[in-house]
TrEMBL record, chain A:
Location (main, coarse): membrane
Single GO cellular component term: ATP-binding cassette (ABC) transporter complex
Name the UniProt record assigns to this protein: ABC transporter ATP-binding protein
Entry keywords, A to Z: ATP-binding, Cell membrane, Membrane, Nucleotide-binding, Translocase, Transport
Organism: Knoellia koreensis
Membrane topology: Peripheral membrane protein
TrEMBL record, chain B:
PANTHER family membership: SLL0384 PROTEIN (PTHR34857:SF2)
Keywords recorded for this protein, A-Z: Cell membrane, Membrane, Transmembrane, Transmembrane helix
Name by which UniProt lists this protein: Cobalt ECF transporter T component CbiQ
InterPro entries registered for this protein in UniProt: ABC/ECF_trnsptr_transmembrane, ECF_CbiQ, ECF_transporter_component
The keyword Membrane appears for this protein: yes
NCBIfam families (UniProt xref): ECF_T_CbiQ (TIGR02454)
Entry's Gene Ontology cellular component terms: ATP-binding cassette (ABC) transporter complex
Protein's GO biological process: cobalt ion transport
Gene: cbiQ
């Protein structure tokens, strides 16, 4: 077995106020996989995500990215390898223009000049936003801003893309466009979502996090059709949606 | 999320003035305004000269006159003050029509009005032709302290986001029958302001997280610098240098 891109072992974490969010999480993601991280509100999904790039450091247990442990000394490299796209693109896009925003990550890695330009162009092209390179982010539509947010992370050429609620607040067309983009990328994806049909569409594998532990890890279709499991962890399919009726891709 | 095109003052265009680098324009306009302000109030002919200069600069922007005039409303308080000055100032009085007004006040009022008007037109020449983010980049180029420039940059970026938050809160208040007509509404407005502050503070924290996630280490990376050619400087210096010559003529003659 090759080294997993993401190797989380026995990860536990309590916030400084004493609230414990994670109780021993185990998670492996291998190269090229697209995995959905499901779970009710308050399950600890965001806390887990913040451990993956070292914003939070493990209270107990360990996190490793392609074999490199997430520790204080190698945070910059970890953050290059793990690209996190946050839920609100207005939080992610803080520079005055799209170009500067996409440059921010690779520039922090020390890139300059033609190499930097090439990264920016490529990342924006991957999400179909190259035409908007000199626009200020606040003049873009919400769906466009989300795509630029994805590009800001792609420009760092991460080994794994972590998306927090990628489909939230998108209209159906933008939601589908984003799905097409994600499918076209040659990158490992971990996607935190409440949008179960989206998980089924994009991710062959799902992991269910509930009350700070992983309670299920398997094929998305199996998990979504396991009624007892779904009910026990406050997961519900949208009205009228039956995963069994969706042709397998 | 409203993605409105609230450009504010900037008027999209491709005139000579639009194309000048922001820091060149900043220096030119600032120097010009300093020269204008340094001119004694009684030198009416000098102000006429400045007016011609600034109107020529404003004309070169090719921004419609109406666009300028509407945005000159910011000058109204100065105008009101200037109109009052001849009546409230002391000293020898002169007759102007049916009124007896202070001579000092009259001169002061003229100086204030002339300086304010020329200053506002000059500032608008800069603001209508320069995007806010270019202004920030220009200030950075002029070596304004990095922290100040970054704060300004974030302000430019998030002004609309915060304004949107404010608008949504207003709509939510009014949807529940609230109207701010009397003093008794103030506590509600104050708590709205508090909520907006907390919201913005929390957004600041999230933005910081997003920055850290992309390798931020306490310094904004500098990826490119604004460059101005000698021709840019020559062109932009026409305004302040000519004004300075006018002033120098006044001093020498």
């Amino acid at each position: 077995m090759t080294t997993p891109v993401l190797d989380v072992r026995g990860l536990a974490y309590a916030y400084p106020d004493g609230h414990q969010a994670l109780y021993g999480v185990n998670l492996h993601v291998h190269r090229g996989e697209r995995v959905a991280l499901l779970g009710p509100n308050g399950a600890g999904k965001t806390t887990l995500v913040l451990h993956l790039n070292g914003i939070l450091l493990a209270g107990a247990g360990s996190v490793a990215v392609s074999g490199m442990p997430v520790e204080k000394d190698n945070l910059l490299e970890v953050r290059r390898r793990v690209g996190v796209v946050f839920q609100d693109p207005d939080d992610q896009l803080f520079m005055p223009s799209v170009r500067q925003d996409v440059e921010f990550g690779p520039a922090n890695l020390g890139l300059r000049g033609a190499e930097l330009d090439a990264r920016v162009t490529r990342a924006l092209d991957q999400v179909g936003m190259l035409d908007f390179i000199d626009r200020p982010p606040h003049h873009l539509s919400f769906g466009q801003r989300r795509r630029v947010a994805v590009a800001t992370v792609l420009a760092m050429e991460p080994e794994i893309l972590v998306l927090d609620e990628p489909s939230s607040n998108l209209d159906p067309a933008s939601r589908r466009e984003l799905a097409d983009i994600l499918r076209s990328l040659d990158v490992t994806v971990l996607m935190v979502t409440h949008d179960l049909p989206y998980a089924l569409e994009l991710c062959p594998r799902s992991v269910v996090l509930s009350d700070g532990v992983v309670v299920a890890d398997g094929s998305t279709r199996d998990i979504l059709t396991d009624e007892a499991l779904m009910k026990a962890h406050r997961l519900e399919l949208p009205f009228g949606f039956d995963p069994r009726s969706v042709p397998s891709t | 999320m409203g993605a409105g095109h609230g450009h504010g003052l900037h008027y999209h265009g491709h005139s000579v003035v639009h194309r000048l680098p922001a820091h060149v324009k900043l220096v030119a306009i600032l120097t010009f305004v300093i020269v204008v302000v340094a001119t004694p109030n009684r030198w009416v002919w000098a102000f006429a000269g400045y007016a011609v200069l600034v109107l020529a600069a404003a004309g070169a922007t090719r921004v419609p006159v109406g666009y300028f005039v509407k945005r000159m409303v910011v000058e109204v308080p100065f105008v009101v003050f200037a109109l009052l000055m001849p009546f409230v100032a002391r000293g020898p009085r002169v007759e102007v029509g049916p009124f007896s007004v202070s001579e000092h006040g009259l001169v002061g009022a003229f100086g204030l009005l002339a300086k304010a008007t020329i200053g506002v037109v000059a500032a608008l020449t800069l603001a209508t032709t320069t995007e806010p983010r270019d202004l920030v980049a220009g200030l950075e180029r002029l070596r304004l302290p990095r922290q100040l420039v970054e704060i300004m940059g974030f302000m430019v970026r998030y002004l609309e986001v915060v304004t949107d938050d404010l608008r949504r809160m207003k709509v939510a208040r009014e949807s529940r029958g609230f109207t701010a007509r009397t003093v008794s509404a103030w506590p509600v407005l104050a708590s709205s302001a508090g909520a907006l502050f907390i919201k913005s503070y929390e957004r600041g924290e999230r933005v910081h997280l997003a920055m850290l996630s992309r390798g931020y280490q306490g310094r904004m990376p500098v990826t490119r610098q604004l460059h101005a050619t000698a021709a840019d400087w020559r062109l932009a210096s026409l305004l302040p240098v000519t004004a300075a010559l006018v002033l120098a003529a006044g001093v020498l003659l």
